[in-house]
Design brief:
Blueprint lengths: L2 H8 L1 H14 L11 E4 L2 E11 L1 H4 L10 H13 L1 E9 L5 H8 L10 E5 L2 H5 L4 H18 L4 E5 L12 H24 L2 E4 L19 H39 L1
Parallel strand pairs: 2-3, 2-4, 4-5, 5-6
Antiparallel strand pairs: 1-3
Length: 258
C-alpha cells in the first residue's frame, strides 16, 4: 500500500464527516428521460455503440437523455466519421463497477456491439472502495463485457481530479484526491491487460461542466466530455477499422484476380 493510500485511510474520519455534510446539503437530481437507444444515419457498415455506466449515462440532472453522454457520443462519432451509428445507453445513478458487472451486464441484449464505452469509477472512489475491491469489480466488468461481446472494442476514461468537483469541500476533495491515482492506475493496468483502452480525463474542467448540484455533468459537460472521448479514442478506432477493411477488400480483389 502506498504512502498516499495509507494517509487517506488515516484521514478517513475527515472523509466521513465531510462526506455526510456534503451529502446533506447537495440536492437530489433525477435521471434523464427520453430515448435510451437510437440511430444516426451515415455511410458504411453501422458502428454499434454501447455506453454503460453511472449517472452520466443515466442523464442525472439534465432532463432529456438527448443531452446525455451516450447520445452525444453517438452523435459526435457519426459526425466525425460519417458512419452510421446505432447506440444504446445502460446507465444508473450511483452505479459502481461491481454493480454494473453483477446486475447490468447480465441483462443487456445479446447484440453484436462493435464499441463499448464505460463510465465508471467515481462512485467506487467516493464510496472509499479499496484498491483490491476496485480491481476485482472493474477487472471482472471488463471480463464480462469481453465475454459477452468478444468482437467489441472497449474504452474507459480515467477519473478527473476531485478538486475539480464543485460540491466537494476542500477537505473531502483532498482525501479523495489521495485515492484517485489508485483508481486510475489500476484502471489503466486492467485495460491494458484485458483488452480495453483507457482514455485520459477531460481537460480544463470548470463549474460550467456541472449541474446545479455541483456533482453531476451538465449539458455542456456531457458535450465536452463526449467530444474529448470521440476525438481521442472512438473516432480513431472507427477510422482505423475502416481503413483496415479497405485494405482487406483490396487484398480480396487481388486474390480473386489471381
Amino acid at each position: 500500500m502506498s504512502l498516499t493510500s495509507l494517509l487517506s485511510w488515516a484521514l478517513f474520519p475527515l472523509y466521513a464527516v465531510e462526506g455526510i455534510r456534503t451529502r446533506l446539503r447537495t440536492p437530489r437530481l433525477r435521471p434523464g428521460t427520453g430515448p435510451y437507444q437510437g440511430r444516426f444515419e451515415g455511410g458504411g457498415t453501422p458502428v454499434r455503440l454501447l455506453v454503460i455506466g453511472d449517472s452520466s449515462v443515466a442523464g442525472v440532472g439534465i432532463g432529456s437523455l438527448e443531452n446525455g453522454l451516450a447520445y452525444q457520443l453517438a452523435s459526435m462519432l457519426a459526425g466525425r466519421t460519417g458512419r452510421t451509428v446505432e447506440w444504446r445507453a445502460a446507465g444508473f445513478n450511483s452505479a459502481t463497477s461491481n454493480q454494473l458487472r453483477e446486475v447490468v451486464v447480465p441483462n443487456l441484449p445479446s447484440q453484436d456491439f462493435t464499441h463499448i464505452y464505460i463510465s465508471v469509477g467515481f462512485n467506487d472512489l467516493k464510496n472509499f472502495h479499496s484498491g483490491p475491491k476496485w480491481k476485482k469489480g472493474f477487472g471482472e466488468l471488463l471480463y464480462a463485457l469481453k465475454a459477452k461481446y468478444p468482437g467489441a472494442k472497449v474504452f474507459w476514461s480515467c477519473l478527473m481530479a476531485p478538486s475539480g468537483v464543485p460540491a466537494l469541500t476542500p477537505g473531502l476533495a483532498f482525501v479523495l484526491g489521495l485515492r484517485q491515482p489508485v483508481i486510475n492506475n489500476i484502471g489503466k493496468t486492467l485495460c491494458e491487460e484485458r483488452g480495453g483502452q483507457w482514455v485520459t480525463s477531460m481537460p480544463d474542467i470548470g463549474r460550467v461542466h456541472f449541474c446545479e448540484d455541483g456533482v453531476h455533468a451538465s449539458i455542456r459537460g456531457n458535450k465536452d466530455w463526449a467530444e474529448h472521448v470521440v476525438e481521442e479514442a472512438l473516432a480513431p478506432s472507427v477510422l482505423r477499422l475502416e481503413n483496415q477493411n479497405e485494405v482487406d477488400d483490396e487484398q480480396d480483389e487481388m486474390n480473386r484476380a489471381l
